């Protein structure tokens, strides 16, 4: 679903849910792959009442807003992929850090700032978090992955060159965004990513565990 449905922006649960509902309504399950490959479904309408309601439901579920008893999945179900020593160790190398995420701003900030405590100490400020709804210096919305735009915006904000940046991710959207931006990519985890049309000078690495990124 997340591989064949890339053109529909399946970077989050509400987009995937919308896509599943549309497929169930229009096609037998055996035809789903063909329908996605040949884009036989209309694009998502993010301003529609149905989509906004679906997105709000997931946001409430994650952030723990009523009617979910004030505690959400971010607090109760998300597990850190890194050890407590990972970011302090990375910081000793003088690495500049920024985040590109398909999460909306409220959810992204809550996760990075409140739950994980990364903003300020390891990520310099919220300026270096690009999420759904983020804008560039001209006030224009920054496209979501798999567009390379959010990664290029991160490179600009970090004031580094393309050959100095590395993007770490775990999905096909992450890979495509990095490849099109011309920024080296490190895949973490075992997700299936189809590699193709990599430009000269582009490097791809794969780690089963993000903690292997730095020596301890």
From TrEMBL:
It comes from the Bacteria. InterPro entries: HAD-like_hydrolase_sf, HAD-like_sf, HAD_2, HAD_sf. Pathway: Organic acid metabolism; glycolate biosynthesis; glycolate from 2-phosphoglycolate: step 1/1. It catalyses: 2-phosphoglycolate + H2O = glycolate + phosphate. Its EC number is 3.1.3.18. GO terms for biological process: DNA repair. GO terms for molecular function: phosphoglycolate phosphatase activity. PANTHER family: PHOSPHOGLYCOLATE PHOSPHATASE (PTHR43434). Belongs to the HAD-like hydrolase superfamily. CbbY/CbbZ/Gph/YieH family. This is phosphoglycolate phosphatase. The lineage of its organism: Bacteria, Pseudomonadati, Pseudomonadota, Gammaproteobacteria, Thiotrichales.
């Amino acid at each position: 679903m997340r591989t064949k449905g890339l053109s529909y922006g399946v970077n989050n649960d509400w987009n995937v849910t919308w896509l599943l509902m549309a497929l169930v309504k229009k096609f037998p399950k055996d035809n789903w792959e063909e329908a996605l490959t040949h884009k036989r479904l209309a694009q998502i309408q993010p301003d529609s009442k149905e989509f906004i309601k679906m997105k709000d439901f997931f946001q409430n579920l994650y952030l723990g807003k009523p009617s979910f008893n004030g505690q959400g999945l971010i607090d109760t179900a998300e597990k850190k992929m890194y050890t407590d020593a990972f970011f302090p160790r990375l910081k000793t190398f003088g690495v500049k850090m920024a985040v590109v995420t398909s999460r909306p701003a409220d959810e992204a900030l809550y996760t990075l700032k409140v739950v994980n405590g990364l903003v300020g100490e390891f990520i310099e400020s919220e300026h270096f978090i690009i999420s759904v709804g983020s804008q560039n210096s001209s006030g224009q919305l920054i496209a979501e992955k798999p567009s390379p735009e959010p990664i290029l915006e991160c490179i600009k904000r970090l004031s580094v060159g393309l050959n100095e940046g590395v993007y770490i991710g775990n999905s096909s959207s992450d890979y495509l965004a990095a490849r099109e931006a011309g920024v080296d990519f490190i895949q973490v985890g075992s997700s299936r990513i189809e590699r193709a049309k990599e430009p000269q000078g582009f490097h791809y690495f794969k780690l089963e565990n993000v903690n292997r990124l730095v020596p301890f």
